[in-house]
Design a protein that fits this description.
The complex is a heterotrimer of chains A (548), B (320) and C (295). Chain A is an alpha+beta fold and 548 residues long. Chain A has helices spanning 2-19, 27-34, 56-65, 114-125, 143-147, 178-181, 192-197, 258-266, 281-286, 315-323, 327-332, 363-372, 392-409, 420-429, 447-450, 467-479, 483-500, 539-543, and strands spanning 36-40, 70-72, 79-81, 84-89, 95-100, 159-163, 166-170, 220-226, 230-235, 249-253, 292-305, 340-341, 384-389, 413-418, 434-440, 503-514, 519-520, 536-537. Chain A folds into three domains: 3-47 and 211-294 and 511-544, Periplasmic binding protein-like II (D-Maltodextrin-Binding Protein, domain 2, 3-Layer(aba) Sandwich), CATH 3.40.190; 67-197, Dipeptide-binding Protein, domain 1, CATH 3.90.76; 297-510, Roll (Dipeptide-binding Protein, domain 3). The chains are: A alpha+beta (548), B mainly alpha (320), C mainly alpha (295).
Chain lengths: 548, 320, 295
C-alpha cells in the first residue's frame, strides 16, 4: 500500500494542477446575461413555511415566493397593492375591507380567494401551531383570545370572507400600522390543499415546502433547494403582475461567514452581500463607483441595565454610565463611522417621529452623578460586569466602553462574553448587570420600540416598571385621533423612559451591503426591505467594459 | 498472561469482540449526551424575541418536550432502534436522518481528499526527513511541517483564497462541486493540519524503527536502502501515525467545520457545530451518535492496521 | 544471589545511566540547547512582563487606531490604538501557561492511562480504551458550555478542560507503543527477572516509548494555545482586555489584508515557540533513544 501511495503522488499533483486552470465565467457575468440575481443571504433558512419561520434570511426567500395582501413600496415604504387590488378603511379605522385581485393565482394555477386568508390566519393563530409570530395579528379582534385558547370558535375572530374576493378584517382598535403587517410573512396566505395534503394545518413536520410540493403565490417559485448550498427561485408564470417582473430568477447563498461572503463578492460570485466586514469598509468607500451601500436601518443597539440590583438600582449610576460614553468617538474610530449615535430607543425619523435627546457625552456631569451616588472618583465602586454574546463587533464595542468608563469615571468594569444561548438565558433570567442588546423593528412605528419597556414585558429585561409609562403606551396612544397627537404621547413616554435610563442606547443601526453596480431598482430604505419586482440587472453595464 | 491469550485471538474474533464492545460505548454516549444537552442553559426555542408562554407550550408539545424526561429518553431510544433520529428543531420539516444524509457524503469526500493530501505530503516529508536526520533533508520538510501546525485552518484557508483565488485567480474561492477546481483549496486547507502532524509523528516513528535490530539485519543482508524503508521501515515507523489517524479521521466531522464555513461547503461539520449553538437537541444527539459510530469504527480500523503493521503482533495474529 | 537482588542491580544500573546518558547527549545537541535557551527566555520574559512591558496592556488610543510599526510602537498598534508588543508580551503569559500546564495535564493522564491499558491488555485494556472512545464522541462544545455555567470562568478550569480533551490521543499513541514493546525480548527478560509491573512500566516501557510521545507533546502545546482561543469564544478562558496569542492570531486573521502586522507578529511568536519546542523535543527524543545511542 505505501508504495502505491508514492506512485499516486505525481498523479495527484497533475490532477490538482489541471483542475486549477481558470475559474471560468463569473456568476455576475452569467447572471447579468441571463437575468439571474446572485444573492448572499446570510445563512441557511430554517424553513420556508411563512407561519413557521422567524428570521431575516427566511424573510428574504419567503417574500420572493409569497406575496401579502398589501406590500411596501421599496422607495417610500407606503403600502401598495399586492394580492389585494385595493382596500377600504372605515372612519373609526377599525374595519378594513380588502378587495382581492381577481387575477391573483397560486403557482399551480388555482385562483386566490378571501377564504385562503381566513384559513391561513386561523392556522397562524391556532394554539397547536405554536407560530412564534402569531402576535402580528393580535390587533385583529379576538385574535389574541383565540391564540391563547380562551375562545375556540374562529368565527368570533375579526376575519371574514364576505365573498370569494372580499376579505373583511375587524380590529380591536385603530392600528395605524396594520397595513404594514400585511407585508410581514407571518400574515401571508398558504395554499390550503397543499398544506393539508402533506400532513394537516398545524403540523410543523410536513414536506409541503419542498421543491416538488411547494405551491406559492409570489413573483417567483421554488426551483431548487440544496441544503447549505443554495436555494434557486425562478420567475413565476402565474403571478398576477408577472409583466413587471424583470428578473428571471434569484440564487440565494447561505453566506454564514461575512469575510467569505466579501471574498465571493470580490471574485464576482455574488451581486449582493448581506453584510460587510467592518474593517473592509474604508477600502470599499474609497473605490470609484463604490459597491458599498449604507443606509439607516430601523434598529437600535443598546445595553440593558439590571435596575433591580445595586449599584444599578440607583438612577444616578445609570445616568453616569450613559453620559460617560462618547458615542461619536466610538462611531468615528472603532465602528469606522458606519452607524448613527443614539441617545434614545426609537430610531430617528420612524415614520416622521423623532425621539427626545435628553443628554449627550458629558464626562464632567457623569463624574458628578457618580459622586452623588456615593462613589466619588470611583471610590468604593463594587465592580460591574458587562455581558455580551460572542461576536467580533460586540467585543470591540464592549472593550471600548470598558476603557471609556475606566478613564472617565475611574471604575472597574469586567467583560464576559457568552455563547449565544447562554447569553439569551442570562438576559431572560436577568442574570446580568449590564448586557448588550439590539432591537430591529418589525414594522415602522415608534410603538414597536416603546412597548419593549412595558412593565413585565418579555423584552423589557431591565426591571423597569413605570405605571405612567404603561398607561401612555397602552391606553393613551391608541386613542389618539391624529398622528401628531399620537407621536406627542410617544414622545412624553420616551422622555420618561430616558430619564430613568434603564438602558444605555449606543447607536442606530445601518444596513450595509455590497451591491454590484449592474444591479438596478434596489433602493435603500429604513426596513432594508427588498421588493424583487422592482429589481433588474443592467446588461449594458457589462458591455461598457466593467467585467466583474 | 493476557498477552498470550490475545495472541491466540483470530482477527475475526477480535473484530466481533470490538463491535460488541461498541454497543455499550454508544449507549453511554447517547445517555450522557441526552442529559448533558438538557442541562445546558438555553433551549431550542430561545431566541432574541422571546415567545409567549402559549407558543412555547405548543412548540414543546409538537416536539414532545412536554413529556417527563425519562419518557423522552426512552422514546428516543425506541426511535433510534428503528433508525429514526427524530425531527430537527432548527430546520422545520427536516429529519435529522435527512440532514446527516445530505451533509455526510460531502464531509466524507472532503475528509478523504484532506487525508490523501496529509498522507502524501506529511508521510512523504516524514520519511524523507527520517532517512537523513540532522541534515538539510531533515530540517527543510520539518520546518514546513511546523509552520503548517502554526497555521490553523482559519488562517491558512483565507490565506490560500487570497493568493490562489483572488490575486492569481486560479481557483474558486468557495463552493463544493459547483465550479471545477473548487475542491482543491478546502482539501489542502484541511489536509495541511494533519499533514504536519503526520510528518512529525512519521519522522519520529521511522527514526525509532530504523534503529531496530530487524532493520539492521535487513541492511546487513545487503538489501537496498529504499527496499528496507518500504518493506520494513514503513510498517513499524508509521505506527504512531496510525494510532493518531483513527480518531483524527473521525474528528474530521467536527474539525471540518471551520473549513466548511470558510469555503461555504454544505457538509456535516457545519450541522454538527451549529446544532450545539442552536441547542437543536435531536440534531446534537443524531450527529453525536453518528460520530460515535464513526469513532468506534475508525479506532477499530486503526487498531487493526496497527496490529498488521507491528511485525511482532502480526506474527502472533498470523500464527492462528 | 537471589533473583531479587539481581533485579535490584539491573534496575539501579539502567536507571541512573539512562538519565545521565540522556543529559550528556542532550548537551551535545546545539539546536536543542538553543531551543531550550529561547524557551527559557520566553518564560522569563513572561514572568517579568508587568515590569518590562512598554505600555499598559489596556490603555487605548482610539484616535490612533491601528497603526503599522513605528518608533513609538515597535510592532504597531491594534484597532484600539493599544501597543501590539505589550499585547504579545501579556498574551504570552496566558498562552505559555495554558500551553505548558494543559499539556502537562494531558501528558500525565494520557501516558499513565495508555501505559496501563497497553501493559495490562485484555479486559482492563478494553474497558479503558472504550472509555477513551466515549470521551472522543461526547459533544465537546456542550461540555465546555456546561463547565462555564457550572463553575464560572477561571483559568484553572481552562487548563483542566483542555487537558481533559488532549489526553485522549496521547493515551492511544502510548498504548500502541507499549503494546508493541510489550512483546520484545528485553521486556520478557525483565518480567522473568521478577520486576513488578509498575517498575517495569516506569523504568523500561515508558522511556522506550517516549519518542512519539515527546513529538506529540511538542505538537500539542501550540495546538492547545490555539484551542484556548476557541474556548474563549465559547465564554471559557480569558476575557478582554486580557489577551493571548491564540486570540491575537484569530483577530489578526480577520484583518490580514488591512493590518497584516496584527497577524504576522503574534504568528511569529507562536511559530518561534513551536520551533524551539520541536528542536528541544527532537533533542530529548534522540537523547533518550537508548538503542539509537548504541550505534
Amino acid at each position: 500500500m505505501p508504495s502505491a501511495l508514492f506512485s499516486a503522488l505525481p498523479a495527484v499533483a497533475i490532477a490538482l494542477l489541471l483542475s486549477a486552470c481558470g475559474t471560468g465565467e463569473s456568476n455576475v457575468v452569467s447572471g447579468n446575461r441571463d437575468g439571474i440575481l446572485h444573492y448572499g443571504n446570510g445563512s441557511e433558512p430554517q424553513g420556508l413555511d411563512p407561519h413557521v419561520v422567524t428570521g431575516i434570511p427566511e424573510n428574504h426567500i419567503v417574500r420572493a415566493l409569497f406575496e401579502g395582501l398589501a406590500v411596501k413600496n421599496p422607495y417610500t415604504l407606503e403600502p401598495e397593492p399586492g394580492v389585494a387590488r385595493s382596500w377600504d378603511i372605515s372612519d373609526d379605522g377599525r374595519v378594513i375591507t380588502f378587495h382581492i385581485n381577481p387575477r391573483a393565482r397560486w403557482s399551480n394555477g388555482d385562483a386566490m380567494s378571501a377564504h385562503d386568508y381566513v384559513w391561513s390566519w386561523q392556522r397562524l393563530l391556532s394554539p397547536a401551531m405554536g407560530a412564534e409570530y402569531n402576535y402580528m395579528l393580535f390587533p385583529v379582534k379576538n385574535a389574541r383570545a383565540f391564540a391563547s385558547g380562551d375562545i375556540t370558535d374562529f368565527a368570533e375572530v375579526g376575519v371574514k370572507a364576505l365573498d370569494d374576493l372580499t376579505l373583511q378584517v375587524t380590529l380591536t382598535e385603530r392600528t395605524p400600522y396594520f397595513l404594514q403587517l400585511m407585508d410581514h410573512y407571518s400574515t401571508f396566505a398558504v395554499h390550503r390543499p397543499t398544506v393539508e395534503k402533506f400532513g394537516g394545518a398545524t403540523n410543523r413536520f410536513t414536506r409541503w415546502t419542498r421543491v416538488e410540493n411547494m405551491v406559492s403565490n409570489g413573483a417567483f417559485r421554488l426551483k431548487e433547494w440544496l441544503l447549505n448550498r443554495r436555494i434557486v427561485v425562478e420567475k413565476s408564470a402565474t403571478y398576477w403582475d408577472r409583466d413587471r417582473v424583470r428578473l428571471n430568477g434569484v440564487v440565494y447563498y447561505p453566506t454564514e461567514n461575512v469575510v467569505s461572503e466579501e471574498r465571493m463578492f470580490r471574485v464576482g460570485q455574488l451581486h449582493y452581500t448581506q453584510s460587510v466586514p467592518l474593517d473592509k469598509i474604508p477600502v470599499y468607500r474609497q473605490m470609484p463607483d463604490s459597491p458599498y451601500v449604507q443606509a439607516p436601518y430601523l434598529g437600535t443597539y443598546y445595553f440593558l441595565l439590571n435596575t433591580t440590583r445595586p449599584p444599578l438600582d440607583d438612577v444616578r449610576v445609570r445616568r453616569a454610565l450613559s453620559l460617560a460614553v462618547d458615542r461619536d468617538k466610538l462611531n468615528d474610530t472603532v465602528l469606522m463611522g458606519t452607524v448613527v449615535s443614539a441617545y434614545s430607543i426609537t430610531p430617528p425619523d420612524t415614520l416622521g417621529y423623532y425621539p427626545p435627546k435628553l443628554f449627550g457625552h458629558d464626562a464632567q456631569r457623569a463624574r458628578e452623578l457618580l459622586a452623588q451616588a456615593g462613589y466619588p472618583g470611583g471610590a468604593g465602586w463594587p465592580g460591574l460586569e458587562l455581558t455580551y454574546n460572542t461576536s467580533e463587533d460586540h467585543r470591540k464595542i464592549a472593550v471600548a466602553l470598558q476603557q471609556m468608563w475606566q478613564d472617565t469615571l475611574d471604575i472597574e468594569v469586567s467583560l464576559a462574553n457568552q455563547e449565544w444561548k447562554v447569553y439569551l438565558d442570562s438576559v431572560t433570567q436577568m442574570h446580568f448587570q449590564v448586557a448588550r442588546r439590539g432591537w430591529i423593528g418589525d414594522y415602522v412605528d415608534p410603538n414597536n420600540f416603546l412597548d419593549l419597556f412595558l412593565t413585565g414585558g418579555g423584552n423589557n429585561n431591565t426591571g423597569f416598571a413605570d405605571p405612567r409609562y404603561d398607561e401612555l403606551i397602552l391606553e393613551q396612544a391608541p386613542r389618539a385621533a391624529t398622528r401628531r397627537e399620537r407621536f406627542a404621547i410617544f414622545h412624553a413616554a420616551e422622555t420618561r423612559l430616558m430619564q430613568q435610563m434603564p438602558i444605555i442606547p449606543i447607536y442606530t443601526y445601518t444596513s450595509k451591503h455590497l451591491i454590484h453596480p449592474s444591479v438596478r431598482g434596489m433602493p435603500s430604505n429604513l426596513m432594508d426591505s427588498l421588493n424583487l419586482k422592482y429589481v433588474w440587472l443592467d446588461r449594458q453595464w457589462q458591455a461598457d467594459g466593467g467585467g466583474g | 498472561m493476557a498477552g498470550r491469550r490475545r495472541g491466540r485471538l483470530s482477527v475475526w474474533r477480535f473484530i466481533t469482540l470490538r463491535l460488541l464492545q461498541a454497543i455499550p460505548v454508544i449507549l453511554v454516549v447517547i445517555t450522557a449526551t441526552f442529559f448533558l444537552v438538557r442541562i445546558a442553559p438555553g433551549g431550542p426555542f430561545d431566541s432574541e424575541k422571546p415567545v409567549t408562554r402559549e407558543v412555547r407550550a405548543a412548540l414543546e408539545a409538537q416536539y414532545r418536550l412536554d413529556l417527563p424526561l425519562h419518557r423522552q429518553y426512552l422514546s428516543y431510544l425506541g426511535d433510534l432502534a428503528r433508525g429514526d433520529l427524530g425531527p430537527s428543531f432548527k430546520y422545520s420539516g427536516r429529519s435529522v436522518n435527512e440532514l446527516i444524509a445530505a451533509g455526510f457524503p460531502v464531509t466524507a469526500e472532503l475528509g478523504l481528499y484532506a487525508l490523501l493530501v496529509a498522507l502524501v505530503v506529511g508521510g512523504g516529508a516524514g520519511i524523507i526527513a527520517a532517512l537523513k536526520p540532522h541534515t538539510a533533508q531533515d530540517y527543510l520538510p520539518m520546518s514546513a511541517a511546523m509552520i503548517g501546525i502554526c497555521m490553523p485552518s482559519f488562517l491558512l484557508g483565507p490565506l490560500l483564497v487570497l493568493v490562489f483565488g483572488i490575486h492569481l485567480d486560479w481557483l474558486p474561492v468557495s463552493g463544493w462541486g459547483d465550479i471545477s477546481g473548487d475542491k482543491v483549496l478546502p482539501s489542502i486547507t484541511l489536509g495541511a493540519a494533519y499533514a504536519a502532524y503526520i510528518a512529525r509523528l512519521g519522522r519520529a516513528g521511522m527514526l525509532e524503527v530504523l534503529h531496530q535490530d530487524y532493520i539492521r539485519t535487513a541492511r546487513a543482508k545487503g538489501l537496498p536502502q529504499w527496499q528496507v524503508v518500504l518493506k520494513h521501515g514503513l510498517r513499524g515507523g508509521l505506527l504512531p501515525v496510525v494510532a493518531f489517524l483513527g480518531p483524527a479521521f473521525a474528528g474530521l466531522l467536527a474539525g471540518s467545520f471551520v473549513v466548511e464555513t470558510i469555503f461555504q461547503i454544505p457538509g456535516l461539520g457545519r450541522f454538527y457545530v451549529q446544532a450545539a449553538f442552536n441547542r437543536d437537541y435531536t440534531m446534537i444527539l443524531g450527529t453525536t451518535v453518528f460520530l460515535s459510530v464513526l469513532i468506534v469504527l475508525f479506532n477499530l480500523l486503526s487498531d487493526i492496521l496497527a496490529a498488521w503493521m507491528n511485525p511482532r503482533l502480526r506474527a502472533q495474529y498470523g500464527r492462528h | 544471589m537471589s533473583t531479587e537482588t539481581l533485579a535490584e542491580i539491573a534496575r539501579a544500573e539502567r536507571g541512573t545511566s539512562l538519565w545521565a546518558d540522556a543529559w550528556l547527549r542532550l548537551r551535545r545537541n546545539k539546536l536543542a540547547l538553543i531551543g531550550f535557551a529561547v524557551l527559557s527566555l520566553f518564560v522569563v520574559i513572561a514572568l517579568l512582563t508587568p515590569w518590562i512591558a512598554p505600555y499598559s496592556y489596556q490603555a487605548q488610543n482610539l484616535e490612533l487606531g491601528a497603526s503599522p510599526p513605528s518608533a513609538q510602537h515597535w510592532l504597531g498598534t491594534d484597532i484600539f490604538g493599544r501597543d501590539l508588543l505589550t499585547q504579545i508580551l501579556y498574551g504570552g503569559r496566558i498562552s505559555l501557561a495554558v500551553g505548558f500546564v494543559a499539556t502537562a495535564v494531558a501528558l500525565l493522564i494520557g501516558v499513565t492511562w495508555g501505559a496501563i491499558a497497553g501493559y495490562a491488555g485484555g479486559r482492563v485494556d478494553a474497558v479503558m480504551m472504550r472509555l477513551v472512545d466515549i470521551l472522543y464522541a461526547l459533544p465537546f462544545m456542550i461540555f465546555i458550555v456546561l463547565l462555564t455555567v457550572v463553575f464560572g470562568r477561571n483559568l484553572l478550569l481552562l487548563f483542566l478542560a483542555i487537558g481533559a480533551v488532549e489526553w485522549l490521543t496521547m493515551a492511544r499513541i502510548m498504548r500502541g507503543q507499549i503494546q508493541s514493546l510489550r512483546q520484545q525480548e528485553f521486556v520478557e527478560a525483565a518480567i522473568s527477572l521478577g520486576l513488578s509491573p509498575a517498575t517495569l512500566i516506569r523504568r523500561h516501557l515508558v522511556p522506550n516509548a517516549l519518542g512519539p510521545i515527546i513529538v506529540y507533546t511538542t505538537l500539542t502545546i501550540p495546538s492547545v494555545m490555539l484551542l484556548e482561543a476557541f474556548l474563549s469564544f465559547l465564554g471559557l478562558g480569558v476575557q478582554p482586555p486580557q489577551t493571548s496569542w491564540g486570540l491575537l492570531i484569530s483577530y489578526g486573521a480577520e484583518t490580514m489584508e488591512e493590518y497584516p502586522w496584527l497577524l504576522v507578529f503574534p504568528g511569529l511568536a507562536l511559530t518561534l515557540t513551536l520551533f524551539c519546542l520541536n528542536f528541544l523535543g527532537d533533542g530529548l527524543r534522540d537523547a533518550l533513544d537508548v538503542r539509537g545511542a548504541r550505534d
